[in-house]
Every structure is written in C-alpha cells, then in structure tokens.
Design brief:
By secondary structure, this protein is an alpha/beta fold. It has helices at 28-36, 50-59, 79-85, 144-153, 163-178, 201-204, 228-258, 292-295, 322-329, 343-348, 459-475, 480-485; strands spanning 3-9, 38-44, 89-94, 113-116, 184-189, 265-271, 276-277, 283-284, 296-297, 300-302, 311-318, 357-360, 366-369, 373-377, 388-391, 410-411, 424-427, 442-445. The strands form 4 sheets. Strands 1, 2, 3, 4, 5, 6, 9, 10 and 11 form a 9-stranded mixed β-sheet that branches. Strands 12-13-14-18 form a 4-stranded antiparallel β-sheet, with helices on one face. A 3-stranded antiparallel β-sheet has the order 15-17-16, with no helix packed on it. Helix 3 runs parallel beside helix 9 (322-329) and helix 5 runs parallel beside helix 7.
C-alpha cells in the first residue's frame, strides 16, 4: 500500500524551530518530527513567493525567470494531475486564500477533490457594509485588506473557528475516512504562520512579552522603523502562531500513530519560504534581497521505503524536488520538463546530487548557492530592464493584467518546456516598486558569516559563482534578456 501526506506551512522560519537550533520557541512536535524523519539542512526556496512556489510543486521546475505570480499555464505539467492519471486519488485541504484569486485559480482544480477554509489575512470572506470597530490602539494601515481582516477576526474568536484549526480538522477527517484505502495523496496546507499573527491568548502566554505599546501583529513590507520593543513583540507574536502550528502538526503525528500509518505513508513537512522579523533591519520579503531567513527553509521527510529517521541530510534540495518525490514514490514517471530530484535520492546518497541551486523572484536578484557561498546578482541598471513576462494566462495575484499592460503584446518563440506553444511576451516591469538595484550585488560565505552581515569582495570567487549562475540559468532555458538585465554574458 502507498499513501502520501504533505503538511505545508506558509512563511515558517527555519530559525524559529528547535530542530534547527532555536532554544526559546515552544515547538515540541517539530522536535518530535525530527526524530521520526530526515531533516534537511540545505533546503532552499526556488521561485518566490506563494503561488510561484506552488507552481514549482506542480511542475518540478523553476518559475521566476519567465513569470511572476500567476496561474498554472496550459502547457504546465501538474503533479497532482499526473498522479490522478495513474490511479492515485489526490485531495487538497487549505485555507490559503490565494487559491481562489485570478492568480491562483488553476491550481486546486488539478486535485481529485478539495476543501477550502476561509478567513486568513484580508480574504474577502464575511460581508459587512458598516466599517468594523477597530480598537484605537491598532492604528490604521488603510486599504481593503486591513479593513477586511478586522471584519474576519470577529468570526473566529474561538480556536476551533480559526482557518488553521478547520483546515487540519478536514485533513484529519480525510485520513480517518481513507486510512484503509490505497493510493492517495493528501495535501494539508495552512496559511499560518503567515502574518498577521492572529492566534489565541494561551499560545501568547507561553512567551515573556511585557510589551505595552500599540497593537502590532502585522509587520509591513518595509524597513524597520519601529522600536526594539515592537520588534521583539512581533517576534513573540510570530512565535505564538508557530506554537499553534506545532500543536496541529502534533495532532497529525498522533493520528498517524493511532492509524499505524508510518509503515506505508510518505510524509513531507515543508514551507514555501521564510520571513524577516527585523533581521537585516527589514520586515517581510519580496522587497529586499532574499537573505537566508527567507530563502533557507525547514524541510522534513519520512519515506517508509528507506526507513531513515532521526537523520540529517546536508544535500542541496529545493521546492522543485517535492513534486518529483511524490511521483517517484507512487511509481509515476517524471515528465522531461521536470528538473527536481526526489528527496529520497538526496537523503540516501553519499554524494551531492547538485552543484548549486537558483532562487529568486521575477524581476529581483537572481541568486545562486553551492551550499557554502551565496551570490545575489542585482540588475545592471536602475531601469531593471529588459524584463518580460512569458504567459498564456495574463493574471497577477488578484486581477488580470491591466489593459495598459496588454497594448504591446508580442509572441515569443517556444521555450523548451512550453510543448511547442508560443507565449505572450509582455513587459514585466510592473513591480518596479521593489527598486532592487539599490541593494547591489552581494556575495556571502555562509560558513564564516552565517548571518550574512559581511559581504565579500573576492573577484575570483565571484567569477566562479557567476559561472555557476550562468550555467544554471541556461539549464532553465532562461530568456536571453535575463542575462542582459543582470549584465551577464550568456555565451
């Protein structure tokens, strides 16, 4: 018999978990998980942020060099769909509300069945015409999401009414209902511990937070301008939500024990990316370079065929490996377009299966690491040009492309992975607010500078990392203008 479960969190920080050295966050079930699984120490993001990562889960290849946030494309392979075609039942339970926006609406339909829980962040869930009563101490960030979040909170004051609790309950219902069945994949995916850090008081009480300032549980995507007390408060708020995630992880582990599922059930516990909680004097992600707090992720694997538990794997792995891991486990062939390597191969190999990995966001730094050094290549000009979107599904996160963006559409020649399809080629600089060039190109030695506080000036090392970067970009069939944008020679 073969079953598989993926527990996917959003914005779960590696450095907030005990198995990765954190000694102050209450997360005993993550420590318990590490004792039952292989813990990866060199897991990196691929394409940022949320839906680009999920496109990688489905397709087993990078997204960010050709496309920003968007739906699955007509030419994309989808791992859940491939599993279905080979007799594996696939089920998604999630409270990740981006699945029901234009920029994510083609993902959940690839599963055999799905269940969605509402209410996270500014999800347009409950309808109230009157403005919500927001406490005076909260202040006002403005905007529809801010208003909607305060509407939503009124409807989930009890823990069992919160989206994460409802999502895990649905996932465990599926496990109980189908424990005796064969050939299924369950994806339990929660938006937590993504901001805002809304959770129950009993989780907050675990932390010695004496903060008495204005309400602050939703950091902006901006430089840190808050006081040290506010920064520490937000870290405690995040920790409380991590502890809630740990609690529900424990419920799934308990159920696997109860149903005796360890003998035949693959388990992957992962996250799409991390989050800056004031490190490098920044909040959040997407604007600044992807320091390791964002890019270096926690990852755990239990494969009953290998039986490896309580072990550590230092191999370079990425989000693009999740889909191929599932396909291999169920004996489903990979497609030629997939670049990921099954995690079990990395976990059981005596040698590294990769010389390096790429990661980044469309229009941002293009980053490469070999596990020791990290090289972050910035655009060569303030205009961050040339930069194009290659798509047949012109949608951003919450809306289709604006008609102004579509006035100069061209058709591109097929890429190696578009199955002969020509795509639209659309100017891709609509995210110019990032102003990436101001940070410059950065090179770090993670062994001697794990906090990435002291950029290196080493032309010889930089040349070696550039060569690796160019090679991996070519392997991904990167558009030629990406090399030009970064001031690199593609030849």
């Amino acid at each position: 018999m073969s079953k598989a479960i993926m527990l996917m969190f959003d914005s779960l920080n590696r450095h907030m978990l005990p198995p990765y050295g954190c000694d102050w966050v209450h997360a005993p079930n993550f420590q318990r998980l590490a004792g039952r699984t292989v813990r990866f120490t060199n897991s990196y993001v691929g394409s940022m942020p949320c839906m680009p990562c999920r496109r990688e889960l489905h397709t087993g290849r990078y997204n960010f060099l050709h496309r920003s946030w968007g739906p699955l494309e007509p030419f994309d392979d989808s791992v859940p769909e491939l599993l279905q075609q080979h007799g594996v039942y696939t089920h998604l339970v999630s409270d990740h509300y981006h699945y029901w926006e234009e920029g994510g609406a083609t993902y959940h339909t690839r599963y055999t069945s799905w269940e969605l829980s509402r209410g996270q962040e500014g999800d347009p869930w409950k309808g109230e015409v009157a403005d919500p009563k927001i406490p005076a101490c909260v202040g006002d960030r403005g905007g529809k999401m801010w208003r909607q979040d305060w509407v939503n909170r009124k409807y989930m004051q009890r823990e069992q009414d919160q989206p994460q609790a409802k999502t895990f309950a649905k996932g465990m219902e599926f496990m109980r209902t189908n424990a005796a069945e064969d050939n299924w994949f369950l994806q339990i995916e929660t938006f937590d511990p993504h901001e805002p850090y809304f959770t129950q008081q009993h989780y907050k009480d675990l932390y010695p937070d004496e903060y008495d300032g204005p309400h602050f549980d939703w950091p902006p995507y901006a430089p840190v301008n808050e006081s040290p007390e506010q920064v520490q408060h937000v870290r405690y708020e995040n920790a409380a939500l991590v502890t809630m995630c740990d609690t529900y992880l424990g419920k799934v582990l308990d159920l696997m024990d109860e149903l005796d599922m360890w003998e035949d059930t693959l388990l992957i516990v992962c996250t799409d990316h991390g989050f800056l909680l004031g490190e490098h004097d920044w909040w959040a992600k997407c604007v600044q370079p992807f320091y390791n707090e964002i890019a270096h992720t926690p990852l755990f694997l239990w494969d009953p065929r290998a039986g490896c538990q309580g072990e550590v794997c230092d191999a370079l792995v990425q989000n693009i490996d999740w889909g191929p891991t599932l396909l291999e486990f169920f004996g489903v062939p990979f497609t030629p377009d997939m670049q990921g390597i099954p995690l079990t191969r990395s976990a059981t190999s005596d040698v590294s299966l990769r010389e390096g990995v790429l990661y980044g966001i469309h229009g941002g730094h293009v980053n490469v690491t070999d596990g020791r050094y990290v090289y972050m290549r910035a655009p060569a000009s303030p205009e961050n040009a040339p930069l194009y979107e290659y798509t047949l599904m012109p949608a951003h996160m919450r809306h289709t492309f604006d008609v102004g963006e579509l006035q100069d559409i061209r058709l591109a020649e097929p890429f190696s992975f578009t199955k002969g399809c020509r795509t639209m080629k659309i100017d891709g600089r609509s995210d110019g607010w990032r102003d990436i060039q101001r940070f410059g190109t950065l090179l770090f030695d993670l062994e001697n500078d794990p906090q990435q506080e002291h950029p290196l000036d080493d032309p010889e090392l930089e040349a070696r990392m550039i060569a690796l970067l160019v090679k991996l970009m070519k392997d991904n069939d990167a558009p030629l203008e990406q090399f030009e944008r970064l001031g690199l020679d593609a030849l």
